Amino acid sequence: MAEVILKNVWKRYDGTAAVKGVSIEIPDKEFFVLVGPSGCGKSTTLRMIAGLEEASDGEIWIGGKKVNDVPPKDRDIAMVFQNYALYPHMTVYENMAFGLKLRGYSKKEIQDRVKEAAEILNMSNLMHRKPKELSGGQRQRVAVGRAIVRKPKVFLFDEPLSNLDAKLRVQMRMELSKLHDRLQTTMIYVTHDQVEAMTMGDRICVMKDGDVQQIAAPLELYNSPSNRFVAGFIGSPPMNFIEVFISEKLQGEAKGVWLRENDPQISSNGMQIKLIPEMNEIVKSYVGKKVIFGIRPENIYDKLFHSGGFSEGSSVKATIEVVEPMGSEKYLYLNTGKNNFVARVEPHNSAKQQQDIDLVFNMETIHLFDPDSGKTIL
Ligand code: ADP
Ligand code: MG
Predict the structure, then answer these.
(1) C-alpha dist (Å) from residue 45 to 2, 21, 247
(2) Which residues surround ligand 2, an ion (CB under 5 A)?
(3) Which of 24, 49, 224, 236 has the least CB density, counted as fewest CB within 10 Å?
(4) Is residue 329 within 8 Å of 348, Cβ to Cβ?
């Protein structure tokens, strides 16, 4: 059991930086996820924690000890890779026992540990098989078993489920979460899949281009993304972004701050929506400027089906370009004449392609981002 701390950690390869000053504190027993697009530095960060890569700068601490100069085998960590890395000529038992044998554990100790891990992973009946006689999911379980028998202070996972089919991934996701509950050990899990991150992580670190974008619990990331990148990365279908002009009311409009698709000085056409009064003060300095408006698909409703009250100036007209029935919900791909966006509506919604539709935006849930920095304004 151990906490893991990264202090301003850098990794440079011949002048180009793959990891740029990452600082993270992972408390003991946490399931911590590193997520981000391919090439953003997740594996490099994990490999520096494991000691498989040397940090160019910064400090790495595991269990209260600075480990920059500690070799991987003495860091008390175990890593599970995407490609399993099992020995093909060895049985499951031998694969799991191998690392312990190398470390000089007694035969009895090895037997006990492998037996226990096999029970935890529900594969006691597979111990005599060779990897080629196993399914993808079973092989992955052996790879996890090999980590468990080590009883490490920290588990490191690098995209361990990427080679599995969609259904098995969901099942293994749950098994790993249960494993974490049972072992109560710090786990650091790398994935490019935001669904895996959201469903498994106690906390999630979103990375981009070697930088940390935000570290937060799943729902906090979802509801309060600190910038446009995080907002767009977490959630499916992703958040809608529309560039809007912020202006005060025009003649005949309700008092307040309005967001407009078109510059009001040039045209009064297009989407016009009014901020709820609570937001007025915050956006004051942006009046007369452009910002990026963000709204999640589930916060856009078909007015016909929307029984509850909605705030003044929150309705929008659009044309439906495509309807995608998903079974439990429907996605409407919409166009305002200038911008495209997607709404997630009830499965019984009867809206048809090419039809015009009146929508209501849930203005309580909207996001505004600075167009230059991408940072949230609200
Ligand atoms: P991720 O795991 O998020 O997909 P990586 O950590 O593997 O990303 O890689 C981050 C960046 O570092 C990438 O641009 C990659 O090309 C670069 N990189 C990784 N390993 C090396 C290496 N050994 N030499 C040079 N560049 C590398
Ligand atoms: Mg990687």
Answers:
(1) 18, 10, 44
(2) 43
(3) 236
(4) no
The per-residue pLDDT for 164 is 87
Judge if pTM exceeds 0.90.
yes
Nearest-angstrom CA–CA distance, 146 and 227: 39
Separation of 228 CA from ligand 1 center, angstroms?
24
- Pocket flag, ligand 1, residue 42 (CB < 6 Å): yes
Question: Which region, left, alpha or beta, applies to residue 71 given φ > 0 means left and ψ of -120 to 50 means alpha?
Answer: beta
Nearest to 335 by CA among 310, 359, 369: 359
**Residues whose CB falls within 8 Å of the CB of residue 257, separated by 6 or more in sequence, listed in order:** 246, 247, 248, 274, 275, 279, 280, 283, 287
Would you say the CB of residue 19 lies under 6 angstroms from ligand 1?
A: no
Instruction: Give how far the C-alpha of residue 188 lies from the chain's centroid of Cα atoms, to the nearest Å.
Output: 13
**Residues 240, 230: contact at Cβ < 8 Å?**
no
Structure tokens at 87: 């020995």
The CA distance from 78 to 65, in Å, is: 17
Q: Please tell me the residue having the least CA distance from ligand 1 atom 6.
A: 41
39 lines ligand 1 (CB under 6 A): yes
pLDDT digits (tens, 9 = 90+) for 267-280: 878 899 999 999 99
- Among 43, 53, 56, 206, which is best to mutate for testing ligand 1, by the most ligand atoms less than 8 A from CB? 43
